Amino acid sequence: MSDELQRITAIGDPYLLLREVTTRLAEAQQEVTELARLRRRVVQDLHAQGLSYAQIATKAGLSRGRIHQIRHTGPAPEGAFLGRGAVIVATPLRRDDERRRTVVAVDDVSSGKRLEDLARSYGLDVTSEHVPVSGEIDLNRDGLVVVCGPRMSQEMWDTYGKDPVLRWGQADDGPWTVTDARTGTVYRSGQETDPARPYDVGYLGRLRRPDGQGSLLAIAGIHTQGSLGVVQLLTSDLNTLWGQVGENRFSTLVGVEYDPETNEPVSVELLCPLYRHDEEPMA
Asked: Closest Cα partner for 53 from 69, 36, 72, 68?
């Protein structure tokens, strides 16, 4: 019996015992899920290196049938792109000055819901929250996926500022843009071009937390259609993204053609490489 289990078993207060057991069971289930994900990842990596399942089985002291079962069951490794065990999806609240009330943009709701569904499909526990109108949010937490641009939160502005390649800013004529420092290309939304067109630019990056103890996944569009396009890319091509950057810090831009009636993405494409910021995996 582990020390933790002995501690819980010794609790005399039945209500505290119930609370502790419930909490520990949730933690244990997350651990089991992540261990299963790691096991499947190891088998896939070894097979990709050229080992047969029979060779992997022999070296691991397992049966070939068990290796096949591990390879095809359990949570997929690419789910770790979003987080480990549990994720928190944060979307912004906005201020309606005309009606003097706080509102949620429909596109932000859609982005958040689709991210939650995606995370659950990979066996991750999901909670959701809002970035308040003030923009204040605690970014020093594990498993954060934040859908929020730099102009809506000082904390996010500071975090985006750590990106060594892609830089947010405002053009001389007013609109927000993103500049690729390596190529000098300035990207802007189709809403601010002449003639205007249903096109936006989305940002996707895994960036360093303020405390330096981990990373968060940041998603933003110049407008909300850009965020929807990033989420579309994640839901359709997460395996490829995972294969290219794994759990390392990176950033990229996504071009989004959208339906002007519904704001739904019609097509998405990468506008630049997935820029690796360093070789250090997220903590």
From this structure: 68
Q: In the predicted model, is pLDDT for residue 282 greater than 60?
A: no
pTM of the predicted structure, to 2 decimals = 0.79
**Alpha-carbon span 235 to 213, nearest angstrom:** 27
Amino acid of residue 36: A
Domain end call among 75, 97, 128: 75
Instruction: Report the amino acid identity of residue 121.
Output: S
Distance CA 92, CA 60 (A): 47
Alpha carbon of residue 141 to chain centroid: 13
Q: How would DSSP label each residue in 192-206?
A: GSSS--SEEEEEEEE
Q: Classify each residue of 94-125 as buried b or exposed e, where b means 16 or more C-beta atoms within 10 Å of its C-beta.
A: beeeeeeeeeebebbebbbebbbebbeebbbb
72 Rama class: left (phi>0) / alpha (psi -120 to 50) / beta: alpha
Cβ–Cβ contacts within 10 Å for residue 89, how many? 25
Tens digit of pLDDT for each residue in 60-91? 888 887 887 777 776 777 888 998 888 999 99
Which tokens hold the place of 214? Answer: 């981990």
Mean pLDDT of 109-135: 94
Parent domain of 107? 80-281
DSSP 39: H
**Number of domains within the chain:** 2
Residue 278, sorted as left (phi over 0), alpha (psi -120 to 50) or beta, turns out to be: beta
Phi first, then psi: give them for residue 261, nearest 5 degrees: -80, -35
- Examine the domain organization and report whether 211 and 148 are in the same domain: yes
